[in-house]
Amino acid sequence: MSTTTAPVTMIADAVPMTAPKLYECPDCGQMQVVPAMPPAARALCLRCDAVLRHTRHHPLGLPAALNLSALILFAIAGTLTIMSVTTAGLSRAASLVSGPAELDHYGLWELSLVVLVTTFAAPLARVLCMLAVLGGLQLRRPPAELRAIFAWVERLRPWSMIEIYMLGLYVAYVRLGAIAHVNLGPATYALLGLIVVVWLADLTLDDQAVWEAMEPPNRRRLAHIRSRRLAAACLTAHRWRIGCDVCGLVSRAAPGTPCPRCGYRLRDRKPHAIQRTWAYVIASLILYIPANVYPVLTVIRLGAGQPNTILGGVKELIDAGMWPLAALVFFASITVPVLKLIGLSFLLAATQLGTPWRLHDRTVLYRIVDAIGRWSMIDIFMESILVALVQFGTVASVYPGPGAVAFAAVVILTMLAARSFDPRLMWDRMSGHVQPGTAPRPVPRAARQAAAQAAAS
């Protein structure tokens, strides 16, 4: 396993605030030394350009203040009205939890649970976890439980979909304009502020600074003493080194043993990544058929109406002259799931064949696939808002359909497929990756010299 020094983008003449440290790239598995970094510096993987670390000027204090603001905004968004509609002298209002409650009323408890978790439970839990960790670090002796809590922050990230919910709210607002008079409530503006504040909180957070602050003081001092010898030591030691998938610490340990810093089980690669990802992809392909065949919702106006599939809803928007909105729904609900399934199938097939063809581009493809899949929930969120607001009997009503359950399952399964795939497997054949317990490959002389210079600087 070769070890080299990662390039760092930094401000000239800046004072370093971190010590040199060994990192394993989460996207390609390359072991490399990240040199001492000043604030506002970015270290990129020398092989696949993944961000290994991004230091901040205020890595703990500013994110804590922003997350506290996010909690206040969430309290406003969760208790006040998001939107209200009026038609034929009848009015109805909806809050953040009205959609899941109405979906459960029609027997679609699975869909209700998905909407409730992604728009309420997961975002709230993530903000509370961040406040618990950043607040606990202010204590003289931070509790050891903070490590398990902080691990959940990253796990909850893809399932927190407030920004996608706002796009669904926008689509519902435009569609409701043709049925009734619509008023936006104060919770809508609170949600907009929440999106901005959470984005800033994530932008200003240095997760490695948080993990380092949670280390026991004696271990922190020992790590500081040994930091400048790390580069040379990592090249000459014969024991296997493995990076933790949770906290990123590279340690001399065997797979299956607890990480010395966070306590989670170490894994050389994700277990059964290929088989597990194929299972999710095949299940998504099967469910994608009923998701497009069965109706997702039924719109009744003046006693007349018919069920609509996803494509039927797009056609309805086109007939109403809402071309931009139709394009948005078509891209999120049709194009994204199809491209994601094709992309995952291509990555799986290429990995099993072991081809080194365009590894960097395939890694970029994986990052895109992992990022865009959650945006297909726009249609589900729009439906939950419409069902909660438009219940005026024969005047105007919206009812959910079974196709929405199948479509939500497709979105979740494709997200799980992307999270199950291990992109490091694509690089293993080219890099000569060996399994733990076997002798590592000799380190090139140039790599040894670069790492030694980084350790001595």
- Which structural class should the secondary elements be placed in? alpha+beta
Give the overall pLDDT as a whole number: 85
How many helices? The count is 17
Low-confidence stretches: 224-228, 234-239, 436-452
Number of domains: 2
In helices, the fraction of residues equals 55-70%
Strand content: 5-15%
Q: Give the overall silhouette.
A: globular
Instruction: Describe the main β-sheet briefly.
Output: 3 strands, mixed
Terminal CA distance reads 23 Å
Alpha-carbon Rg, integer: 25 Å
Strands ordered across the widest β-sheet: 1-4-3
Report the count of strand segments: 14
Protein name: Paraquat-inducible membrane protein A
Family: Belongs to the PqiA family.
Keywords: Cell inner membrane, Cell membrane, Membrane, Transmembrane, Transmembrane helix
GO cellular component, one term: plasma membrane
